[in-house]
Amino acid sequence: MKKEIIIAGFGGQGVLSMGKILAYAGLIDDLEITWMPSYGPEQRGGTANVTVVLSDAPISSPVLDTFDTAVILNQQSLDKFESKVKPGGALIYDPYGIHRAPTRTDINIYPVDAMDATLELNNSKAYNMVVLGALLKINPVVDIESVMAGLKKALPERHHHLLPLNREAISRGMELVNP
Amino acid sequence: MKEDVKLMKGNEAIAHAAIRYGADGYFGYPITPQSEVLETLEALMPWETTGMVVLQAESEVASINMVYGGASTGKAVMTSSSSPGISLMQEGLSYIAAGELPVLVVNVMRGGPGLGTIHPSQSDYFQAVKGGGHGDYHFIVLAPSTVQEMADFVGLGFDLAFKYRTPAMLLADGVVGQMMEKVVLPPARPRRTEEEIAIQCPWAVTGHSAHRKPNVLTTLELDSAKMEVNNERFQRTYRLIEDNEVRYQEYYTDDADYIFIAFGSIARICLKAIEDAREQGLKIGLIRPITLWPFPSKIIAEMSHKCKGIMVVELNAGQMIEDVRLAVEGRVPVWHYGRMGGIVPNPPEVLDALKSHIDNA
Questions:
Q1: Is B341 on the interface with A (CB under 8 A)?
Q2: Contact across the interface for A63 and B346, Cβ inside 8 Å
């Protein structure tokens, strides 16, 4: 098993955190992991992306050209990464703010109304967890319980009271797609 | 999940490993892409546990001179920075080499020259390997390619530095500094006691209390005859290091028609390209120098008798390729593929570059 995933969007959407939680879940599931972020001023606006590789064998390159799954949260990232999904792979995107929808026919495309769902949940910070839920439904690369345990590791203790809210957001994300 | 397996960035691994090694002091100044080294040390507060000093100095120039001072007393001290910061340290580094002092310097390279970019680069190879400061000197230069090696080479760097009384540099790049992967941290050990330092470092300036002749550490020698004796001693140390400390790793070299030579994170990109190439029936191998100085010339020379061509892949315009060419002595073509400015090539790009050289050969 080897999954090569890119998550891309605006800085502040929780792109890097989502990748980190996936990585921690992979750690708990005893997988090999690389987590390679775009780093620097992207974190304060602009586009941000992270490449996460999860594998049951040692991983050579943390830098990749094509991906099994792309999670896309803004137009710039869609323009950049639509062509980078391997044929037969998955492109998950939030149509919120997208004015040129993906057009490829050789990949599986999943629109996920995560922004709308997050607004309904009344917690904008849970946005990336809703997206993560959709990703896990489409691509159950790690166990949901490992994700929760990973969240616990990634979050400082003072935020642990937010764990149930995150679980709710992940569940909501899972309901948004039917692969 | 094994409890001792952690997930962290390469920069964070350096901080953890330094504390666990029993380092006595870290002096540094923040700069992307390695600020997490200092940040992690500050967060871990080792001064409360091992007694390790962590100080954010006012500049890189101050940092390296604090390291110079600390090392003079036999303490295990280190600094870390990125390319422009390492340039600022060059005067101090030359003095430290001349003082025959064991220190560990970490350079997580970013693109230059000048302030350049914050993104990954390997454009400080010449500076690290050929001596960025003035005078005839060498650092032992270790090039980690994984987060695990970021952790392991802290201890290795310190051990080699103390063994040969010479500075060691960990030459990493933004990729391996910023990426997270699994790591098993080295076992924690206590800092050395004053008694242990006195035995291990009889040269250290620790205050002699009239029990022995004063130790003097100076890099100034106005008598040229004496200075040449010093230079000869340095060179003897370097020859000893060249004879004993060359490190490298080979991948798929047994049946390889072509060889990549790459260090750090780029070696991993080459490895992925090799995996793809082998599926297409193209037999490529990889030599990954782990010590950039001393350089693994011998294995490269041996390989040049067996293979049809060598491509050096670097995040620069062609630096390590000079050392490769010296080793190959013209036996086979030596090509270069490099990206600059903080751009990191992907595996197909590297493979395509090699294929075009093969087609044109």
A1: no
A2: yes
